[in-house]
Amino acid sequence: MKPVHLLKARRIACPGGPAGPVPTFRCRLRVQLHRGRLDHQLADGLAADSFEDRALRASQLSGLPARRRVARSLRELVKAAERPTGALLSSAVPVSRRAVVPWREALLGLAERLERPGPINPCGVARMLVLITDGGGPLYDPSARDALGDAIWWIADGLQP
C-alpha cells in the first residue's frame, strides 16, 4: 500500500460547475455503500449540489465510463429479450420479451445517447439505473408494455442537460 503522502487527490467536478473540493475517503465510502439510494434520489430530481454524497454520485454518473457501463447493460437486456426463452435455470429475473421488444429501438437509442461525449444530466443516468435494477419494474413485467414507454420518456427527459 502506498503511503498516504504519495496518493494524489482527485478533484471531482460537479455537473455544470467548477471542480469542487476533493471528496474525503469517508464520503467516497458512503457513496459506494449507498449508491442505490443516491441513484433513487437523483432519479427523483433531488438537487445534486445540495448534499456532498449526492454531488459525488452525480459526478460519477455523468462520467463517460459509468455511462458506457449503463449503456452496455441496457444493450445486454435488449439482447436477452430478443433471445428465445430456454429452460436454463437462473437466479436472475428474466427480461420480459413482451415489454422490451416493442421498445427495442427506443432503448437502444437511449444507450446510444449515453455513450455520446458531451454533457449529460446525471438524473437521466440514475433513472436508467433504477429501471435496469428494479426487478419488479417494466423491463421485467410482461404486462407493463405501456409503463415501459412511460419510463423511456421519463429517462429521456432526465438526460437533458
Structure notes:
The chain has one domain. The longest helix has 19 residues, at 64-82. The protein is an all-alpha fold and 161 residues long. It is 57% helix and 0% strand. The N and C termini lie far apart (39 Å). Mean pLDDT is 84; it is low at 1-18.
For the structure shown, list the relevant keywords:
disordered N terminus
**Which structural class do you get from the secondary structure elements?**
mainly alpha
Roughly what percent helix? Answer: 55-70%
Q: Could you give a short account of the major beta sheet?
A: none
Strand content: under 5%
Number of helices: 8
Task: Chart the SSEs and their pairings.
Elements: H1 25-33, H2 35-43, H3 52-62, H4 64-82, H5 97-100, H6 104-115, H7 122-133, H8 145-159
Structure at a glance:
The protein has 161 residues and is mostly helical. The chain has helices at residues 25-33, 35-43, 52-62, 64-82, 97-100, 104-115, 122-133, 145-159. The radius of gyration is 17 Å and the shape is globular.
